[in-house]
Specification:
Number of strands: 12
Largest sheet: 7 strands, parallel
Distance between the termini: 49 Å
Structural class: alpha/beta
CATH superfamily of one domain: NAD(P)-binding Rossmann-like Domain
Shape: globular
Radius of gyration: 20 Å
Strand content: 15-25%
CATH topology of one domain: Rossmann fold
Number of helices: 12
Order of helices and strands: EHEEHEHHHEHEEHEEHEEHEHHH
Length: about 350
């Protein structure tokens, strides 16, 4: 049984990855998470009695603690999900993003490098450091084209700039020190256990309580939508078969305008929880002033991971968003516990 050291494994994507990989029965996970506002131990409740999951409350910026944990548990891989990840929050407080995403990643890389250098063979040869990043590092697209792994970086928000910096650090630790790294850059994730400041869960929660649904600008910003469990499968494929030092873009082949995502969600909720008068919840849509520096369009060319590793998404947008809405309707207790007072669905990053 392989041991994997996961950082940020109580968050949205990290939590889904931990649930998926531990559930497969072939891996033990050592899960380090700082439990900031978006980290939630309720997500990991199904693993409470699992002998194959160990949760540790800690920060990737604490190099000594990370080094001690690596020495103690001897993982064959590190998968780094730990990050501040919301564009709006980065507009209001960029310093936190630099501290976690840049300084934290550097400290994690240093701890990993020290650990890897001391490993005997064959463990040293099979060790991998996989860094999970975003397509936002590439900037904004026009009406055509898609991001490739060789697309120049052009981040436009404090969040994407901090993630771009972390990607560059991972590349540098491979090319300078030989650390066997892998990087994935994914499109917009959605699915179970997502913190409700993001578009999909925010619209679901507000629609259920008949609150106004804020849509930025004209609602025609385009994103490529990726179901989170498809993303987890892609990460596993890269971890198991990816070429050391390479970058792999992961997309859902599902470009949609934000307004179309919102209306699809509302249709599904209206079907499942109709209003007493039978009216559509589309009347709740409220167009608001656009986010500063809002990128117009993202799209991912996932040909490399398809051709090299055989990965393609299993979910269409229609099937994935249906599964997502059904999950939130069935798990309102989880949603209510997440909304503990630190975030109540208000707009952030409007400055």
């Amino acid at each position: 049984m392989q041991t994997i050291f996961v950082t940020g494994g109580a968050g949205f994507i990290g939590g889904n990855f931990v649930l998926d990989i531990v559930g497969g029965g072939e891996h033990r996970v050592i899960n380090l998470d700082a439990l900031t506002y978006a980290g939630n131990l309720d997500t990991l409740a199904p693993l409470e009695r699992s002998p194959h999951h160990k949760f540790i409350h800690g920060d990737i910026g604490d190099r000594d603690t990370v080094a001690a944990l690596l020495k103690q548990y001897q993982p064959s891989a590190i998968v780094n999900f730990a990050a501040e990840s919301h564009v709006d929050r980065s507009i209001d407080g960029p310093g936190t993003f630099v501290q976690t995403n840049v300084v934290g990643t550097m400290n994690l890389l240093q701890a990993a490098l020290g650990y890897w250098r001391e490993l005997p063979e064959p463990e040293r040869s099979v060790f991998r450091f996989l860094h999970v990043s975003t397509d936002e590092v590439y900037g904004s697209l026009g009406d055509t084209g898609a991001f490739r792994e060789d697309t120049p970086y052009a981040p436009n928000s404090p969040y994407s700039a901090s993630k771009a910096a972390s990607d560059h650090l991972v590349r540098a630790w491979h090319h300078t020190y030989g650390l066997p790294t892998l990087t994935t850059n994914c499109s917009n994730n959605y699915g179970p256990y997502q913190f409700p400041e993001k578009l999909v869960p925010l619209m679901i929660q507000k629609a259920l309580t008949d609150q106004p649904l804020p849509v930025y600008g004209d609602g025609r910003n385009v994103r490529d939508w990726l179901y989170v469990l498809d993303h987890c499968r892609a990460i596993r494929a890269v971890l198991e078969r990816g070429r050391v030092g390479e970058v792999y873009n992961v997309g859902g082949n599902a470009e949609r305008m934000n307004i179309d995502v919102v209306t699809t969600i509302l249709r599904l909720i209206d079907e499942r929880r109709p209003r007493a008068d039978g009216s559509s919840r589309t009347s709740l849509i409220s167009y608001v002033k656009d986010r500063p520096g809002h990128d117009r369009r993202y799209a991912i060319d996932a040909g490399k991971i398809r051709d090299e590793l055989g990965w393609t998404p299993s979910e269409t947008f229609e099937s994935g968003i249906t599964r997502t809405v059904d999950w939130y309707l069935a798990n309102q207790a989880w949603c209510n516990r997440v909304l503990d007072g630190s975030y109540r669905g208000e707009r952030l990053g409007g400055a």
